[in-house]
Design a protein that fits this description.
- The structure holds two protein chains of two kinds.
- Helix content of chain A is 4%, strand content 49%.
- By secondary structure, chain A is mainly beta.
- Chain A has one domain: YVTN repeat-like/Quinoprotein amine dehydrogenase (Methylamine Dehydrogenase, Chain H, 7 Propeller), CATH 2.130.10.10.
- The longest helix of chain A is centred in the C-terminal third of the chain and has 16 residues.
- Chain A is globular and about 55 Å long.
- Chain B folds into five domains: 54 residues, no CATH class; 148 residues, no CATH class; 151 residues, no CATH class; 92 residues; 109 residues.
- Chain B contains 34 helices and four strands.
- Chain B has a three-stranded antiparallel beta sheet with strand order 2-3-4.
- Chain B starts with 9 loop residues before the first strand and ends with a helix.
- The N terminus of chain B is likely disordered.
- Classes of the chains: A mainly beta, B mainly alpha.
- Chains A and B meet through strand 1, strand 2, strand 3, strand 8 and strand 22 of A and strand 1, helix 1, strand 2, strand 3 and helix 2 of B.
- Chain B: It is found in: Nucleus, Nuclear pore complex.
- Chain B: One of its GO terms (cellular component) is nuclear pore outer ring.
- Chain B: One of its GO terms (biological process) is protein import into nucleus.
Chain lengths: 370, 668
């Protein structure tokens, strides 16, 4: 494992969120400095900031990409109580700007009366939908009435969770009814379970979001949660960041094989991943949902993986060292840095095996303990 | 064996703010992470009313990209990746159902192919490392990688002998000798050194080469070296000739010969008795080195310990010892003999990872071989391919635990995942995922949609791969993405053709509207050949049908088939296929038809047209229309033109009605 690249963002303050686009060739970043930036991976293999704009009037907490089927669309949410939808327009009117792109505001969702803490687009099979959650405990659903004209977003539904919401995640499965999980960072254990599961299903001849379950096993503050890709399993996997990381499986219980929606969930907890008793703030799955990255208060990022017998283990840790990079070198020689990293990596990563044939001399990441 | 529980490796990221604000990570495609300082704690403090702390960032925040398991992405290793992929795919055709006698030689062949490609890669890496233009680090990384591959080769060949190319009766020594010969070439190196040196001397190097040859059982080579000695010095007492004879006479068992094992055993014992006799007679006592060789030949156990430095490892000692004391040893008994050799080399506490893997192989513990190999090697190439080969040999499933096929799939999935982060290995990835029955398809579905499609050509390739696997959902999505992208770049024709492929009706309507508005603004259609050849695809949406039909009207008109053209136009109006905003254009198209000498619209048709005209006039004054953007955008001039056209139409239609009624009366 090695640092392939390291560059300075043009933000003036802490970055709160970074989101890759669907192909991993663009990223969007947002920061306390109230701005959003978009970076593109160029043909030269370098990342270039191609757009930066400031519109929000508060810290921007989260940024997220819509599926490319809907074009180049971003959503951001902020302390200023709004969530905003952005679309990239390729300039064509002005010949000087031909091929140049810029981002324009397509919609502002201003229903919240408190800080909007998370925003997520739905899986693409549900069309262009969006869910937001806010500190006052309301989860809101919006939908673009016309996919080719993103100016109009209709509010679909509001759910009162009765707990201050910190995060939400859509279940990506296309063979199950729409499902979201909402987490709350309310820190008092007496207010009950901090993760609520909602399903969109018909009840009394009306399709609505219904609460299916509250995960009573998690009573501490929840800071982040994420569904893993379904991979054709009969159950869903969700990772929850709280005072540790819980991996939970949710298996829909059915009355019989033919009924679509479930009548409840069978919840199991195959793993509880300890983080030195530190709060965990972020969890993120890789594309196939086989490796989980978690970020905790001790400054560590940990990578977790289950082996083929479903035993979860941490196989790599990453940590910032607090060393400043000389300001005179804003784009700091890549090769040199790589060398330093590799040298540093070698010292630390060198496996405790004497046999020289297995020496991870080039700082290569070692394989997995089965 | 819980031998490799080791500390979790730590990678330090040079970031000034990470110490106070912690680190967050986001996943890229494959084994790639993007890290930055800040973990969303600020949101919590904010919303919990803990107040806002002014930022104290020492420098602008940084973004760090971390990657791992990229050693298969380098050009040299990539050759191995594609070559082994071909072998892998060919191997999959040999399912466990075909009979053993047909299958086994095939499997051995594939195993050799894998090894050959590893060997080729080692050569390439060595060559690359020797290139004076490469940097020191690159050179080191090439060397490390070639050493790793050599180790893999060593383990692989042993596994091939024990698990793949199992001989009847389980007599393995001949194969083990070949194994040593292939992987431990110091004897050859020393011999070359001696023979090529200008002042040829019978020094320590010379004798060491001979010892190694003898201990590896390569007596022909040893005799060749010895003969040079005999040529130079008078062998008055025939000592050298005697040794030569002993060596020449050593019986060699070959599984292919007709000789029975008992027969061989008898001959071999007789031969070793002769060796022992020579030793007893002190025949070589005057030549210290020949005496030692004779001790080896007669299987004197103490000599092996004396020469353990030259043997190098317990497994080399194992083969030598067995060669001169128990040449008919069966594969299953190897592990008992191995224990004694391990003790000679310091016991099991001094075993390296490689020693453990080889020992596990001698113990026929396939699972442990794979487990220990994946724990120590820096890539999944080796374990994934080995596990797959052993699975095909039926060795993985026969293990007591019943997860044989799961383990194989797990390793193949891991290997494929390491290739995902590379731009051009996606077809290789698909090849492996195809053969993972449980999760392969799901992985591929997630992965294939995310392949960046920079060019149309690549898009077609990816789509073909999807179509071959009937991934209709992925095909649809990829086409939709490409359609949307074309639309945003203003390429309407390309957008429409992608849209037709993705069968997205709503998008087809949007695109048709774009074409129509282009027409109404500029008076022409772009992408004519596409619209002319829509065929059945036209039925995707009503608007697209209208577009296709309207274009058909133009063609009929151009060809002078006015009757047909008029009929089509009328049907477009009456069937309400045309959007209201387009009616005026359609009705304007009617005007020239009214001015022709020949009567085109009969009275009934004219009534219908008048009805449409009336409906349009009503629509223009309706609230719906007046409130719409189109109405608001209209200039005064446009409005006047519109009214004029409507008037003209009214007049033209009235005149036509008169003509039609007149003609119809005459006919009747």
């Amino acid at each position: 494992m090695f640092v392939a690249k390291s560059i300075a963002a043009q933000h003036k303050d802490l970055i709160h969120d970074v989101a890759y686009d669907f192909y991993g060739r663009r990223i969007a970043t947002c920061s306390t400095d109230q701005s959003v930036q978009v970076w593109d991976l160029g043909e030269d293999g370098e990342w270039h900031c191609t757009s930066a704009w400031k519109h929000h009037s508060g810290s921007v907490w989260r940024v997220t990409w819509a599926h490319p089927e809907f074009g180049q669309v971003l959503a951001s949410c902020s302390f200023d109580r709004t969530a905003v939808i952005w679309e990239e327009i390729v300039g064509e009117s002005n010949p000087n700007e031909k091929g140049q792109s810029h981002w324009i505001k397509r919609g502002a969702l201003v229903d919240s009366r408190t800080s909007v803490t998370d925003v997520k687009f739905s899986p693409r099979h549900l069309g262009l939908q969006l869910a937001t959650c806010s500190a006052d405990g309301v989860v809101r659903f919006y939908e673009a009435s016309d996919v080719t004209n993103l100016a109009t977003w209709s509010s679909q539904e509001e759910i009162q969770t009765k707990l201050n919401c910190s995060c939400l995640s859509w279940n990506p499965s296309r063979v199950h009814p729409p499902m979201i999980a909402v987490g709350s960072d309310d820190s008092s254990p007496s207010s009950g379970g901090k993760v609520q599961i909602y399903e969109y299903k018909e009840n009394e001849r009306k399709k609505k979001w219904h609460k299916t379950e509250t995960l009573m096993s998690i009573t501490e503050a929840v800071h982040d949660l994420a569904f893993a890709p379904n991979l054709g399993r009969s159950y869903h996997v969700i990772a929850v960041a709280t005072k540790d990381v819980r991996i939970l499986t949710l298996k829909p219980l059915r009355r019989d094989a033919t009924t679509m929606g479930s009548i409840g969930l069978d919840i199991k907890q195959p793993a509880q991943l300890d983080h030195n008793n530190q709060q965990v703030w972020r969890v993120s799955w890789n594309v196939t949902g086989t490796i989980l990255a978690s970020s905790s208060d001790d400054g560590h990022v940990r990578l977790w993986k289950a082996n083929y017998l479903d035993n979860w283990k941490c196989f790599q840790e990453l940590k910032g060292d607090g060393t400043a990079i000389p300001m005179s070198m804003p784009n700091f020689n890549r090769e040199q840095q790589q060398q330093q990293q590799q040298a540093a990596g070698n010292a630390r990563l060198n496996p405790a095996i004497q046999d020289s044939m297995f020496d991870g001399r080039s700082g290569r990441y070692h394989a997995w303990n089965l | 064996m819980a031998a490799y529980e080791r500390e979790i490796p730590l990678l330090v990221i040079p970031d000034a703010d990470a110490a106070t604000n912690c680190l967050s990570s986001v996943w890229g495609l494959g084994h790639k992470l993007l890290l930055h300082a800040g973990i969303g704690k600020r949101i919590y403090e904010h919303t919990q009313g803990k107040g806002y702390e002014a930022p104290i960032l020492q420098s602008p925040p940084r973004l760090h990209w971390v990657q791992w398991q990229t050693d298969m992405h380098k050009p040299i290793a990539r050759k191995l990746v594609t070559q082994s992929h071909d072998v892998f795919v060919a191997l999959q055709k040999h399912g466990p159902e075909s009979s053993d006698s047909v299958r086994k030689p095939q499997l051995v062949k594939y195993s050799r192919h894998y090894r050959a490609f590893m060997g080729e890669c080692v050569q390439d890496l060595r060559k690359a490392a020797a290139d004076p233009n490469v940097s020191r680090e690159e050179c080191e990384s090439y060397t490390a990688q070639s050493e790793l591959l050599q180790t893999m080769g060593l383990i692989w060949s042993l596994c091939e002998i024990l698990f793949v190319e199992t001989l009847p009766g389980g007599v393995v020594l001949q194969q083990l000798q070949d194994w040593l010969k292939l992987h431990f070439t110091e004897g050859d190196r020393l011999a070359r050194e001696v023979l090529q040196s200008e002042d040829f001397q019978f020094n320590e190097v010379y004798w060491k080469a001979i010892y190694i040859y003898v201990m590896q059982g390569r007596l022909a080579e040893a005799r060749h070296l010895l003969s040079t000695h005999a040529q130079q010095e008078q062998d008055t007492l025939n000592t050298f000739a005697r040794m030569d004879k002993l060596m020449r006479d050593m019986p060699v068992f070959s599984a292919l010969s007709r000789q029975s094992l008992a027969e061989f055993d008898l001959r071999w014992r007789h031969w070793q008795d002769q060796c022992a006799q020579c030793l007893e007679d002190s025949a070589f006592i005057s030549y210290h080195h020949l005496h030692t060789i004779c001790r080896i030949l007669s299987g004197d156990q103490s000599v092996f310990s004396e020469l353990s430095d030259m043997l190098g490892s317990w497994y080399q000692m194992l083969v030598t010892k067995l060669l001169y004391s128990n040449p008919t040893v069966r594969a299953l008994d190897l592990q008992y003999h191995a224990k004694a050799c391990i003790d000679e080399f310091g016991g099991s506490s001094r075993m390296s990872a490689l020693d453990n893997i080889l020992m596990a192989a001698f113990e026929f513990d396939v699972h442990q071989v794979i487990k220990a190999s994946s724990a120590t090697m820096s890539n999944w190439w080796f374990v994934a391919h080995l596990a797959d080969l052993l699975h095909h040999c039926g060795k993985l499933d026969s293990h007591q635990l019943n997860f044989g096929s799961n383990l194989r799939e797990f390793l193949l999935l891991e290997y494929a995942s390491t290739l995902m982060s590379h731009d051009s290995l996606w077809q290789v990835v698909a090849g492996y995922l195809d053969h993972c029955p449980q999760f392969g398809r799901h992985y591929l579905e997630l992965f294939i949609e995310r392949i960046p499609l920079q060019s149309e050509r690549k898009a077609m390739k990816v789509l073909r791969v999807c179509e071959e696997r009937e991934m209709t959902e992925q095909v649809r999505s990829i086409c939709k993405v490409l359609g949307m992208r074309s639309l945003q770049q203003g390429r309407l024709g390309s957008a429409l053709s992608w849209c037709i492929r993705s069968k997205d009706a709503a998008f087809a309507t949007v695109l048709s509207d774009r074409f129509l508005s282009e027409y109404s603004l500029g008076g022409g259609f772009s992408n004519l050949d596409l619209i002319d050849n829509l065929g059945a695809a036209m039925l995707l949406s009503d608007r697209l049908t209208f577009l296709g039909k309207y274009r058909e009207f133009h063609k009929l008109y151009e060809r002078g088939e006015f009757q047909e053209a008029a009929g089509l136009l009328l049907s477009l109006l009456t069937a309400k296929l045309a959007p209201k905003s387009f009616w005026l254009i359609l009705l304007t198209d009617v005007l020239p038809l009214l001015e022709l000498e020949e009567l085109i619209f009969r009275s009934q048709q004219t009534y219908e047209l008048l009805h449409c005209l009336n409906e349009l006039t009503q629509w223009y004054s309706s609230k719906d229309y007046l409130r719409s953007d189109a109405a608001k955008r209209k200039t005064k001039g446009q409005q006047e033109l519109e009214t004029e056209k409507l008037e003209l139409l009214k007049l033209g239609l009235a005149r036509n009605l008169a003509r039609a009624v007149q003609e119809e009366v005459i006919i009747s």
